[in-house]
């Protein structure tokens, strides 16, 4: 994926991020319960996450804090707003 | 649970942090596996001997938090609050310290002494994670110990620290989390108010309760309303709204955020990890294992392997146990009874046909369960279990379940009992109940002989069609039941949001795995023996007691004149609409309630009246001969187990059309063929007689098989259901399966008649 020079406010849904890209979590959904359960697993706003796997359907795999791998359902990924994290994260 | 003077400590931590390796390292083999009272969450207790101390170690369920969103979280925090362990060991994965500390500081807030254990330190170091232990301990105000549970690294230090704590020398005071000025002052206000309610502050740490109130904790709110503290809740809600207005975020989210920022403050200068994001070997493996296309066949292969192990590899030892019990053990019992002078008395019948047969019926499940638990423990320990849920998620969502439910259902083809226990891998209580509810419809191995006998008797060479149809109908019923429950009972159940940690793949720790297997089997035996034993004794008495004074004498009565016989005759008309309303078939269905294996056995007894007695009345001690037999058959069973393991390969390859690999038959044992031909003839005659014609008899036979497929699986399953989900759920299951099986059988028979099939 080529990294377009987007302004930092260009938000998108986590479910749209391609595998290998690193993004910053801006906002998580509406439900407090959902937010809290994700926080329990270590996923909070302000965090950088790398999308490890994201296929046309089914759940996504995220890398949080380098060593933790989280699988989250697609429905939930729709509710997580992210923006591209300005870095050279992609490896060839 | 806690005696005064006895020391109890608890182990807490996230799932997948190697908590059980620490538990094993502390307690060795002094372990007890059971359930938490009223819950289906597994409880493990152990005894640790450290120095001259005897310490009870309670392994709390693995949780990410203490929010009470799952029964595990409620259990963990209730244990800490109400059972007052002297100490909590918070086990953390060193490589994921931030998230693990999130739980650890919540435990600290419960104002209980805590030791922080950073486990799996070797893996963390390999990944370039470095932690300044002393500084971390100083900042948290609690001891911090690095361990590698599987290699006992750091365990001695942990034991020493445990001793210091139990000697009541609290070395330091733990840190208090700074929630920021706005929240802190709100917490102070609430705390003061809580402290005024003596009934609350006696039970709950006031500061903690204040935090939970701002967190809008549902479980605690409900409890406070129950104890008449609405005003306090109302006050908390006002404060909470005030803050939310000021800050623009709800207090729940604020508290979470502040906790995490507090953690990053603590870890500043303590935790060093490489900034470069690495693709781990686990990631590489996951490219295939969780691949949207390849993931499914890989998963099916895993399930197939488990199915093979529980159904086929366990069979030789199942036969061996069966042989030992019905052969030597029975003979010994007979000889012993002869010595005491009870030969040929009713006690002999009770001991041999009641007690020994009953206990035997439980013991034969042990090999099946051993292989199941072994497979499940291995899958969990390697980290594959989480992936299987990931892969099957999409499919299972259709019936309102998620991926992990698939595994118990597959195991159900081998035996329903381990399948029900396999639901333990599901976290959500409703998911577990629903999955367990569906497992009996997966045709288990014990139902197969019934299909085989009826298939051969009524369909000859085409018997395979009947067998296959039964399996398919079972699956269809399970799916439909799942859909129906999703639309009705679980209509309001929001779909469980799918979120799951995928732990890195690991080489399993065999000591750990085997200990877990042993504990679970012991737990099973303890629970199943009682109910099975009781039920077989009851049935035995029912068969031995004549239905009336003129019908015969105790223990010398014809089967149809016993209470059992008259009961069968009483029930038989119920099956009239399904075409098999004879007392013989009703009777065999009753014994099938004890165990499905008994259906064919009873039919043999009633229809053919050809009792194959194991003990041929041979007197005198054949002890050495028996021992030799036990040992040699054990050897055979071992060889056959290896053979069956090897046979998985050809059996798997043979699934591919066109491939036909021969299966090993090392001991040159052709299938032991039970001579059922006389039974088959008797069956065709009897069914035709009851139904009215040959073709009607055939239709009735199919209906009978449908009934066998769908009705209450067996006593052991019922016991397992009760053990896992309680008496109500068990009763519901019995009622549903009985109603469903009867309706289905009647529909098949009457429908067949209407369609002019007979």
Write up this protein.
The complex is a heterodimer of chains A (92) and B (758). Chain A has helices at 32-40, 74-78, and strands at 12-13, 22-28, 48-53, 60-64, 68-72, 80-84. Chain A is an alpha+beta fold and 92 residues long. Chain A has two helices and six strands; from the N terminus they run ββαβββαβ. Residues 1-7 and 88-92 of chain A have low confidence and may be disordered. Chain A has one domain: Roll (SH3 type barrels), CATH 2.30.30.90. Helix content of chain B is 61%, strand content 7%. Mean pLDDT of chain B is 84; it is low at 609-620. Chain B starts with 6 loop residues before the first strand and ends with a helix. With 758 residues, chain B is of the alpha/beta class. In chain B, the strands form two sheets. In chain B, strands 2-3-4-1-5-6-8 form a seven-stranded mixed sheet, with helices on both faces. Chain B has a two-stranded antiparallel sheet with strand order 7-9. The longest helix of chain B has 35 residues, at 510-544. Among the domains of chain B are: 7-166, P-loop containing nucleotide triphosphate hydrolases (Rossmann fold, 3-Layer(aba) Sandwich), CATH 3.40.50; 181-272, Helix Hairpins (Orthogonal Bundle), CATH 1.10.287.1770. The chains are: A alpha+beta (92), B alpha/beta (758). Chain A binds chain B through residues 22, 32-42, 44-45, 50, 52-53, 55-59, 61, 63-73, 75-76, 89, 91, and chain B through 64-65, 67, 69, 95-96, 98-99, 102, 124, 127, 129, 216, 250, 252-253, 256-257, 260, 273-274, 277-280, 282-283, 286-287, 290, 292, 386, 389-390, 393-394, 497-504.
Question: What would you call the shape of chain B?
Answer: elongated
Structural class of chain A: alpha+beta
Give the C-alpha Rg of chain B: 30 Å
Strand portion of chain B: 5-15%
Topology, please?
The complex is a heterodimer of chains A (92) and B (758).
Chain A: E1 12-13, E2 22-28, H1 32-40, E3 48-53, E4 60-64, E5 68-72, H2 74-78, E6 80-84
Antiparallel strand pairs in A: 1-6, 2-3, 2-6, 3-4, 4-5
Chain B: E1 7-13, H1 19-27, E2 31-35, E3 42-50, E4 53-59, H2 71-82, E5 87-93, H3 97-108, E6 114-119, H4 121-126, E7 130-131, H5 133-140, E8 144-146, H6 155-166, H7 181-196, H8 198-201, H9 206-214, H10 218-226, H11 230-247, H12 251-267, E9 271-272, H13 281-289, H14 295-313, H15 315-340, H16 346-363, H17 365-382, H18 384-396, H19 406-411, H20 416-422, H21 429-438, H22 448-459, H23 463-487, E10 499-501, H24 510-544, H25 563-571, H26 583-594, H27 597-608, H28 623-653, H29 677-691, H30 694-710, H31 715-725, H32 727-754
Parallel strand pairs in B: 1-4, 1-5, 5-6, 6-8
Antiparallel strand pairs in B: 2-3, 3-4, 7-9
Helix pairs in contact in B: 3-12, 7-9, 7-11, 14-17, 14-28, 15-16, 15-28, 16-24, 17-24, 20-31, 22-23, 22-29, 22-30, 23-30, 24-31, 25-26, 26-27, 27-29, 29-30, 30-32, 31-32
């Amino acid at each position: 994926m080529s990294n377009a020079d987007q302004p930092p406010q260009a938000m998108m849904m986590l479910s749209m991020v391609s595998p290998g890209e690193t993004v910053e979590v801006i906002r998580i959904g509406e439900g407090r319960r959902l937010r809290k359960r994700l926080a329990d697993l270590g996923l909070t706003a302000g965090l950088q996450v790398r999308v490890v796997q994201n296929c046309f359907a089914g759940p996504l795999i995220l890398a949080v804090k380098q060593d933790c791998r989280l699988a989250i359902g697609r429905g939930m990924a729709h509710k997580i707003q992210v923006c591209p994290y300005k870095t050279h994260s992609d490896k060839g | 649970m806690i005696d005064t003077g006895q020391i109890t400590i608890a182990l807490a931590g996230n799932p997948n942090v190697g908590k059980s390796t620490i538990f094993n390292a502390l307690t060795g083999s002094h372990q007890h596996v059971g359930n938490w009272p009223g819950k289906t969450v597994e409880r493990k207790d152990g005894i640790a001997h450290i120095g001259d101390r005897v310490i009870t170690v309670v392994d709390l369920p693995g949780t990410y938090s203490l929010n009470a969103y799952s029964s595990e979280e409620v259990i963990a925090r209730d244990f800490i609050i109400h059972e007052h362990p002297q100490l909590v060991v918070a086990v953390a994965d060193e490589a994921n310290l931030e998230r693990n500390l999130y739980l650890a500081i919540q435990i600290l807030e419960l104002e209980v002494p805590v030791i922080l254990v950073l486990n799996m330190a070797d893996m963390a170091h390999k990944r370039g994670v470095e932690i300044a232990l002393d500084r971390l301990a100083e900042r948290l105000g609690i001891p911090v110990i690095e361990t590698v549970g599987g290699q006992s690294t750091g365990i001695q230090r942990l034991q020493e620290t445990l001793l210091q704590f139990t000697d009541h020398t609290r070395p330091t005071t733990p840190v208090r989390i700074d929630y920021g000025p706005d929240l802190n002052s709100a917490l102070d206000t609430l705390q003061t108010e809580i402290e005024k309610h003596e009934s609350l502050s006696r039970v709950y740490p006031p500061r903690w309760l204040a935090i939970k109130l701002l967190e809008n904790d549902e479980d605690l709110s409900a409890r406070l309303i129950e104890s008449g503290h609405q005003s306090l809740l109302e006050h908390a809600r006002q404060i909470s709204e005030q803050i939310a207005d000021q800050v623009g975020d709800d207090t729940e989210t604020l508290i979470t955020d502040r906790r995490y920022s507090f953690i990053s403050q603590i870890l500043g200068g303590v935790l060093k990890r490489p900034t470069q994001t690495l693709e781990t070997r686990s990631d590489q493996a996951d490219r295939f294992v969780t691949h949207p296309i390849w993931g499914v066949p890989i998963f099916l292969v895993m399930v197939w392997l488990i199915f093979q192990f529980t159904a086929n590899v366990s069979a030789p030892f199942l036969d061996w146990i069966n042989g030992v019990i019905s052969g030597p053990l029975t003979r010994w019992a007979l000889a012993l009874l002869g010595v005491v002078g009870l030969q040929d008395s009713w006690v002999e019948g009770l001991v041999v046909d009641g007690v020994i047969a009953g206990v035997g019926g439980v013991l034969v499940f042990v090999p099946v369960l051993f292989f199941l638990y072994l497979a499940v423990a291995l899958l969990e320990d390697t980290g594959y279990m989480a992936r299987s849920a990931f892969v099957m998620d999409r499919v299972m969502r259709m019936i309102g379940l998620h991926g992990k439910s698939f595994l118990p259902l597959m195991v159900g083809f081998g035996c329903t009992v381990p399948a029900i226990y396999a639901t333990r891998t599901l976290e959500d209580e409703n998911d577990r109940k629903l999955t367990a509810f569906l497992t009996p419809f997966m045709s288990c191995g014990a139902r197969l002989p019934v299909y085989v006998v009826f298939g051969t008797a009524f369909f000859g060479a085409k018997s395979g069609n009947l067998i296959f149809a039964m399996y398919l109908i079972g699956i269809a019923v399970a799916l439909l039941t799942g859909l129906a429950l999703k639309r009705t009972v679980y209509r309001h159940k929001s779909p469980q949001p799918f979120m799951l940690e995928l732990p890195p793949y690991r080489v399993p720790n065999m000591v750990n795995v085997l200990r877990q297997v042993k504990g679970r089997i012991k737990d099973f035996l303890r629970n199943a023996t009682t109910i099975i034993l009781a039920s077989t004794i009851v049935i035995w008495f029912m068969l031995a007691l004549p239905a009336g004074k003129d019908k015969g004498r105790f223990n010398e009565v014809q089967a149809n004149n016993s209470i059992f016989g008259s009961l069968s005759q009483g029930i038989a008309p119920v099956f009239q609409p399904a075409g098999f309303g004879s007392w013989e078939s009703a009777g065999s269905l009753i014994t099938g309630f004890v165990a499905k294996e008994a259906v064919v056995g009873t039919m043999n007894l009633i229809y053919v009246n050809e009792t194959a007695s194991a003990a041929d009345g041979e007197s005198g001690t054949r002890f050495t001969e028996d021992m030799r037999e036990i040992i040699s058959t054990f050897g055979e069973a071992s060889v056959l187990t290896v053979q069956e393991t090897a046979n998985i390969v050809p059996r798997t390859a043979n699934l591919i059309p066109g491939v036909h690999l021969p299966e090993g038959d090392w001991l040159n044992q052709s299938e032991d063929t039970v001579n059922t031909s006389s039974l088959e003839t008797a069956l065709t005659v009897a069914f035709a007689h009851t139904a009215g014609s040959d073709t009607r008899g055939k239709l009735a036979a199919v209906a009978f098989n449908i009934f066998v497929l769908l009705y209450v699986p067996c006593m052991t399953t019922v016991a397992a259901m009760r053990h896992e989900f309680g008496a109500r759920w068990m009763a519901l299951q019995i009622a549903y399966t009985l109603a469903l099986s009867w309706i289905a059988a009647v529909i098949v028979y009457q429908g067949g008649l209407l369609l002019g099939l007979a």
